[in-house]
Specification:
Layout lengths: L15 H23 L1 H8 L1 H22 L14 H14 L13 H17 L11 H10 L1 H16 L6 H18 L22 H4 L8 H14 L8 E5 L5 H15 L5 E5 L12 H12 L4 H16 L2 E4 L13 H4 L1 H7 L4 E5 L1 H7 L11 H4 L8 E4 L15
Parallel strand pairs: 1-2, 1-4, 2-3, 4-5
The chain binds 6-O-phosphono-beta-D-fructofuranose (F6P) and manganese (II) ion.
């Protein structure tokens, strides 16, 4: 098999990677600095002068980081005490070795995937270094605002689900398949609501998606819904005896409306018995502006339960119940916030790889997961997706992603 092509990088002027590193990442950093500035009084009220001092130090750290980025300085090792720090610093050494003498790993010369992930980890380092604001999520405000801006769309999709559940037992196989395809597409288009692509600008879902699915159909470039349906249906038919299970793993992406669409899809899979277990995988630190952390996941369930809308609160209660019963499980392994391509998971995080091997099908949400699945390299569009996976295959898998970066393939891998 031919060697894997080079990584997408800011060294390719005019590429989306170049535009992202040159313009978008500094915008995101500036927005983080502004957010810290705006929370100065809150830090003072909560922590007194110590909070204000910590805020000043974090801002100075982030301003220095922005200058490093904008002037293409070499990447520097992390020096906080977090468990992933040695892995990040080993990865920097690896980048130094593979740069084969083309100088130090730097923002515009190194792989885009690495430098973008590295920026979010350095943002976390800026806070970790500065207690007592070390637990502050600089993206929380934007995630919460995006949730509330999407209220109408959330009400519509929760209402649709609850109406569907009333007679789900009476649906025949074709009707079930039709509903499955609808909710898959809602989860797909929910991925447009990502605050990284908008550099933090509002990117919430204003209208109900369910009425627009036909309008969006022609924008689906690669459609393997039939294969995914067959895989789940065959697994359901095999799950006759008690002990056999159909486990679906959802590698989550953005909080807010997209997370609701993923939970709605998961509820449908559980209620239709297409899945006997659903495992959700979130991020262990704030990531790519709107990616879901455990706090975001739990906040969303609580927010729904306390909503003054019957179907929203019903969803929140049911979903919390599924977690309590253990039919739904939430994980947040540190691997998801490392810079590694997924093809190195078996070496870097064998425990996570083994966990995913228990799955009947793994659904990867979003653009960043797609980039990590395929190594974020300059593949020809005609290369089969499974080739780009580079032997990463813990279980049958698929990607549900709205295209936000140059990388794209013609086929999805499932079986
Ligand atoms: O939330 P998603 O779908 O992973 O999108 C994040 C992606 O968007 C981008 O901002 C666009 O390139 C990338 O940084 C990242 O891959
Ligand atoms: Mn995201």
């Amino acid at each position: 098999m031919a060697a894997a092509p080079v990584s997408l990088s800011g060294r390719f002027k005019g590429s989306f990677a170049y535009f992202t590193i040159k313009d978008r990442l500094p915008q995101i950093l500036t927005r983080v600095i502004d957010t810290l500035h705006r929370h100065k009084n809150e830090f003072f009220e909560k922590h007194g002068e110590k909070g204000v001092e910590a805020e000043k130090r974090a801002i100075s750290f982030l301003s220095k980081l922005r200058n490093e980025l904008q002037t293409d300085k070499p990447m520097i090792p992390l020096n906080d005490e977090l468990p992933d720090t040695p892995i990040w610093n080993q990865y920097l050494e690896y980048q130094r070795n593979v740069s084969n003498g083309n100088g130090q790993p730097s923002w515009f010369q190194s792989p885009w995937l690495y430098v973008e992930c590295y920026m979010y980890r350095r943002i976390h380092e800026a806070l970790i270094h500065n207690p007592p604001i070390d637990d502050f999520d600089p993206f929380m405000e934007a995630k919460i605002q995006s949730f509330f801006e999407s209220q109408q769309a959330i009400i519509a999709v929760c209402t649709y689900l609850q109406e569907l559940l009333k007679n789900i037992e009476d649906l025949n196989e074709n009707q079930l398949k039709e509903e499955f395809f609808k909710l898959l597409q809602v989860s797909l288009w929910g991925n447009r609501c990502d605050l990284s692509i908008s550099a933090g600008e509002d990117n919430s879902q204003k209208s109900s998606l369910l009425q627009s699915l036909n309008d969006f159909k022609s924008f689906i470039l690669v459609d393997d819904m039939e294969n995914l349906w067959s895989l789940l249906l065959n697994s359901k038919k095999r799950t006759t005896t008690k002990e056999s299970i159909t486990r679906v793993d959802m590698i989550l992406d953005n909080a807010g409306f997209e997370l609701i669409t993923d939970l709605v899809l998961a509820n449908f899979l559980s209620s239709s018995k297409l899945a006997t277990e659903v495992h959700f995988h979130g991020k262990c630190i704030p990531w790519f502006v709107s990616d879901t952390t455990k706090h975001d996941f739990n906040w969303t369930l609580k927010q729904l339960q306390s909503a003054n809308h019957m179907w929203m609160s019903r969803c929140g209660m049911n979903w919390e119940g599924n977690l309590k019963k253990g039919v739904w499980v939430y994980h947040d392994h540190m691997f998801w916030t490392l810079p590694h391509e997924f093809s190195s998971m078996a070496q870097v995080a064998p425990d996570l790889y083994a966990e995913l091997q228990k799955s009947s099908v793994i659904i990867f949400k979003g653009d960043l997961n797609y980039r990590k699945l395929t190594g974020d390299r300059k593949w020809e569009f005609t290369v089969p997706f499974h080739q780009a996976l580079n032997k990463f295959h813990p279980a049958p898998l698929c990607s549900i992603r709205t295209l936000k970066a140059e990388i794209q393939f013609c086929l999805l891998a499932l079986p």
